[in-house]
Amino acid sequence: MTLARLTPGQVRMMRLIRQHQSQEIADVESDLPTPEDYPRYALMNSYLRRLKDYTAEIEAGEKLGIADFDEFQKRLKELQDLRSWIYEPISPFIDRERGKMIGNVFVEVGGYRYDQAYERIEKSRTVLAKSGAPLSDNRVRVVRAFKALLTMKIPNYPRLAEDFCVCGKVHDHRCADRLRKQIDKLKSVLGELETPLSA
Ligand SMILES: [Zn+2]
Predict the structure, then answer these.
(1) What is the CA(169)–ligand 1 centre distance, in A?
(2) Tens digit of each residue's pLDDT (9 = 90 or more) over 11-66
(3) Which one, 114, 138, 170, 188, has least CB within 10 Å?
(4) Which helix (H) or strand (E) segment is 66 a member of?
(5) Inter-residue contact 32 to 45 (CB < 8 Å)
């Protein structure tokens, strides 16, 4: 842990991210399912709790003008990782609200003029919108597959692959294995969520 005095640019960036997170908290809260909806509820509830804790920490860092910036970025990455099991992957450059936030960071921190930042984001948006998000990495789909397995709607991995594999070919044991690995990863994430963060 290395605390350092934040530059004014970093403080502004933290404020923008915190404002964005406050909106995200409201969105997740309004979208929260009942606790019976496992594992979605467990994922969302943990995400929400961490998001709230972290937003409060950012606010404290802003006020003091001091923070561990490496830790700050590490925590943001962890939050994004957890989020990827809950919502479809979206690129900040495709989603307009997120694009606006990134644009503000370009202006506030990167010293860009507003029209330059806007142009840069529009350019990235066009490129990324064409390429699309890789479907094979879609963790929301893995959560749905796991739920089908848990509720015994679909009793085994080969049958699961028929419904949830997106390879686009005839599904075989490799598809079933891949899905099993993805579900194992989800199980380990869920196991970690149940462990308290600090003793
Ligand atoms: Zn397949």
Answers:
(1) 6
(2) 888 888 898 899 999 999 999 999 999 999 999 999 999 999 999 999 998 898 88
(3) 170
(4) strand 66-67
(5) yes
Instruction: State the distance from the centre of ligand 1 to the C-alpha of 161, rounded, in angstroms.
Output: 6
| Contact by Cβ (8 Å): 51, 32 | no
As given in the structure block, the two tokens for residue 193 are: 């969520």
Residue 90's pLDDT is what? 62
Q: Ligand 1 centroid to 145 CA: how many Å?
A: 13
Query: What distance in angstroms lies between residue 130's CA and the mean position of ligand 1's atoms?
Result: 24
For the entire predicted model, the pTM comes to 0.79
CA nearest neighbour of 8 among 128, 108, 150? 108
Instruction: Please count the other Cβ atoms lying within 10 Å of the Cβ belonging to residue 44.
Output: 21
- Calculate how far, in angstroms, residue 134's C-alpha sits from the geometric centre of ligand 1: 15
Output the CA 178–ligand 1 centroid distance in Å: 9
Distance 31 CA to ligand 1 centre (A): 31
CA distance 85 to 141: 8
Q: Is the peptide bond before 92 cis (omega within 30 degrees of 0)?
A: no
Query: What is the distance in A from the centroid of ligand 1 to the CA of 104?
Result: 41
Closest C-alpha to 85, from 197, 199, 190: 190
d(CA 75, CA 113): 29
CA 156 to chain centre: 28
Give the contacts of 130 (CB within 8 A, at least 6 positions apart): none
